[in-house]
Model the fold of this input.
Amino acid sequence: MRITLFAPCFIDALYPGIAMKAVKIFENLGHQVNVPEELACCGQPAFNTGHWDEARAVASKVIESLWDAEAVVLPSGSCTAMIRKFYPELFAESPLSEKACRLAEHTWEFSDFLVSHLKVTDLGAVFNATVTFHDGCHGLRELGIYQQPRELMSHVKGLTLVEMEAIQCCGFGGTFSAKFPEISTTMGDSKINMALETGAEYIVSNDSSCLMHIRGLADKQHRHIKTIHLIEILASNE
Amino acid sequence: MNNLAKKFHQDAAHMAENVALRNVIATGLGKYAEGRDKKIADFQDWQKARETASQIKRESLNNLPQNIQQLTEKLTSRGTHIHFAATGSDVCRIVLNILRQKKAKLMIKSKSMTSEEVHLNKALEKEGFKVVESDLGEFIVQLRQEPPYHIVFPAMHLTRYQISDLFHDKLNSQPTENPETLTMIARQNLRSQYIQADVGFTGANFAVADTGMISVTENEGNSRLCGSLPKTMITLIGIEKVIPRLEDLPLFLPMLATVGAAQNLTAYNTLYSGPKRPEEPDGPEEYHVILLDNGRSRLQKDPVYREVLKCMRCGSCLNVCPIYKSVGGHTYNATYSGPIGSVLMPKLFGMAAYKHLSFACSLCCACRDACPVKIDLSHLLLKNRETLSSQFAPKYEKLAFKGMSALFNHPLFWSLGKKLAWIGQKLHPLIEGSAIDPAQCWTATRKAPKLVWHSFKDLWKKYKS
Done:
């Protein structure tokens, strides 16, 4: 099938390798990948900060570009939630309403797309490490993605998954992390503590924004935990 | 930034340092979560129970005026005095009038967040009346002269050692590490006050419209004593707490106990229908019910925010909120803390004063999933943000988001922007984390992520060709 891979702004500018690996995974499965080069962002930063008009300005371009795509896949739970859950609301009673709803119906988070839509769980990956998984909140609670990444990891050879004591936000929250750094940092600390308690070498997530927050905090405080996106593990054959 | 917001930031920063206190909160809430999940498992279908409860609350709010009328007619027919209070100061005036009429000196209270909302104790004490809190947690925080830390667990921030020291200081008791002994000390102190009290005061969890009854649920029996020993009893209840039918309680009471206190049912569940009848040996001779509006009917008329009136003050959104766990209850500086408080406080007491609370949220949505009556709290916070950003956002923030929209919408700008940012970041280490760093709000506690020269778009173009 023809898959439109929408790599959101921070993946484009900070973690291009993750998106390239997603391209390879889909191509190896025999699919054709297309990247909308004219799009940069889903509009979530403005939306979550309450600037809905500015969010609409960005989102309307995404809708016009992608509404008739076969399947749109994002390597990020929160950007997917933005399109799937909030575009229909943001454009309710507007001329773009129908297209926004159409787009929402065929937009997927990466792990959810593989497991729920393509029914693929084993990518033949090898990754020799003990890892713990961080559920990005939007993927988990807006999209109900919990089992899908675990299913994919269960087929990775050499990988052992140890769960953290509780599911909890990493403290990123977009502009929240800049508006309330004292709270955001405390939450991140608590997340890193929980991950370290598992004895895992890596924190894996399907959301790069969470990993960016955890990484930034761990580096500043010299805490020894590695971070890696799920896609990098699935593309690994070490 | 207003003073409330400044204090919020300061107190949150203090809490970030106070690992010991955060551990007390985490331990308490950890035990609660374990217990709550076990009790939820006792429900045949918890999600369906939530849906039903939400629908009943919604139905009840849609017919609020009729339900209130039915409730008050029934209560009045059995001799209860009904008072409508439009504001908090009306509540204080009504209670003061009753106390004066009864020539009362002492009023004994059971737990009531609504009375906290209207600052009742302060108003009564100012007029020379003695008010004693009889709920153990409230008794403790009253001795410390501080507001409750949590909607349901007022003294959850204190260890038994701190409580022992407090009792030693204020009540001259012997220091003890035993929680049961501490409870006995409080009980001994309170028993005589129930007998001396002229007026007993309770909050309420539900008001049942069809039978005209006030439902109070509690674990210590103190509320029952407040309602049976003094000759006059007063109940304060927000108008949104009315439920249509008595037959709704078998759902709501176990639900509230489950999420509120990790119990199947609280120890004491009482229904008050009026003052003592001639043939009854116990109960108050006079019963007053005060129905408080304080902004609620305004919310009831708002189709979006009406949802928030479904709240039964179980505290379960606080218990799962990572912000609450990080900053603690007092940092909110608000009667209602946690997610429900962040939605409710600005809507009831002014958007401008409490606007910071709507942004102090990572939108993790744990509160929404924990709410037994399915209030979409995180989304209501987003709605608050929309209103606030159009009214109060600083000019530079509006400009920044307009600039970002332009950047994202023009591939050339975006491409150039990334390259310029990459160059800028080469110089960044010179100032990273310092006061002149424009990204200081991030870099003071976190390393900045490294931008790449070849973005995904660049790599993709190359790969494709």
